[in-house]
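assembly run, all chains below
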Amino acid sequence: MSAMTLDPLSDPILERRQKIQEIAQASVGRRKAYSKIFIVVCWVFLALAVVPLIAVIVYTFAKGIAAWTPDFFTQVTKPEGIPNGGVWNAIVGTFVIGLIATLVTVPLGLLVGLGLAQFEGKLAGVVRFAADVMTGVPSILIGIFGYIALVTRFGYSGLAGAFAIGLIMLPIMIRAGETAIRGVPPQLQEAGIALGARKFIVTRRVVLPAALPGIITGSLLAVARGIGETAPLLLTIFGTQFFNSNPTKPMEALPLVIYNYSSQPYSDLVQIAWGAALLLMMAVLVLNIGSRVLAGFLQRERQ
Amino acid sequence: MSVVGIPQQDGGSRRGRTSPRFSLPDGWYRVLLVASAAVFAALVIWFLVAIAIKAQPAFSTLGFSWIVQKTWNPNLQQFGLLPFILGTLETTAIAMFLAVPIGLGAAIALAYLVPHRVRLVLGTAVELLAAVPSVVYGLWGVVALAPLFRQYVEPFLSSAFGWTGLFNGPNLGVGLILAGTILFIMVLPTMVAVSRDVLATVPTEQVEGALAVGATRGQVLRKVVIPGARTGLLGAFTLATGRALGETVAVALVIGNSNYIAHSLKSPAATLPSLLINNFGEASGTELSALFGAGLVLLVIGLTVNSIARILVRRAEGSELGSASVLVP
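ok done. output:
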């Protein structure tokens, strides 16, 4: 009798409890181990994702900075074998094409975005979906469209390039504009309308100023996306080795220089491609970072 | 209220007196907005119709079977698209094979594991990387990565996985595997940024509830967070797939551009976009129509994939409007 109660090992209840605890312990240990493994794998994948991306940037910077000589910025592109080539004509081309595309796309995209934000209905739904899908359409197809629409009639020109680039920027601008305008508290609009102002005045005086940070961010992001596109330009502006600031003629552009020079066997041309890549990458990153900084600044200014 | 109160007061009264106020009646304002939307809609329709019309002669002279024929030889009037369709699918498959696990793991780490301050910096960096022009990735691929692949990666793959028969043939550097890898690196930022946003929408209550009943962190992530964000993750994958399918210049630079069906992952190949970019300049006659036809095939694939992606992402974000994911191209 005493043996049964004093010896804990022979108590069936205690024995079961101990067994349960052992199993639970093992389960917790196992689950913790699996959890650790899972989390470590996630960390490793994060590292795997970040390393090549950093490698691209560092590599471009290291290779590109060597190409940034005075000639690089002041001379036009020259055929292989002729030294001291630059990308001045490509810089001008990218600037002119980007400017034209921006001047048309930003107001038009903003108006469509306003319409999507202020009027509901089937049409708005269709337009919104079309804009979303158009942002993902392969850019080469936009280039083919630019070729069909303009090049077959008027020949290769900077304007055809601006048309194609604008068509890539437009859906981005539309959706960014809509998002920015929807971010304006509806009470502001309602207050304006309650004061008897027309919708147009309310939009111009109340909604657009309030949505300005978002609109600027969206525009800069659209521009950054537009000037980096290569495939549409290859089919529309053709490229030229001469300086040309007239957008009705074939033009050169930075992405074209990179593409055309990158598979050349001449090391000085590849060098120029790296310089152009660094320049283009810096322009895109500055636009991106600038848009964030500017948006944050405007937001703070308001408060 | 303070948001617009001040600019409206000084701007409104001063400008109001000096210049005549430009205004539009509500009706005309509405007309202006509808007209701009109509311009956009017309451009989209023109885009779709123009490519279809230009592709039509190819279908009327060659029928429909040319799309799946094996030989592309313009001199013999043979315009089979099969090598390019396969090339597109193979490069995309390689890219997604790498991007799905790595992108998902990185997104989970970014959304739940990384300390808060690092998260902001790293998140912004990833979004910035999505903006690096594709031609820069292409240049990096052909100059920096191709020699590495020729000397190290491809010999290693051949010796380690040669028994699968997927890695026969010489080590060239350029080819399917390099194109797939470049695409993987290019779609990664999109994938991580969208997945992270979607993962962050899983309700905190569900996460805390699971932790409260004794689930480990790994269990919460695997059994609560990932299933909860399933639709949106699928949308992110599809979005990345769409990007990989349509990428042109980076692929054209690193794939080696061969018009034959690849027999090994190391072989040079071509995709629909790289076919277009390489041949468009010199083509004429039936070849040009066939290229427009290839464009139409690419358009159908691209529209389908993107529509699916957008519907999934919208459903996951719980609103018909979508959200910031549009800003991550």
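Chain A has a mean pLDDT of 87.

Chain A touches chain B through 108 residues (CB under 8 Å).

not gonna interpret more than that til we talk
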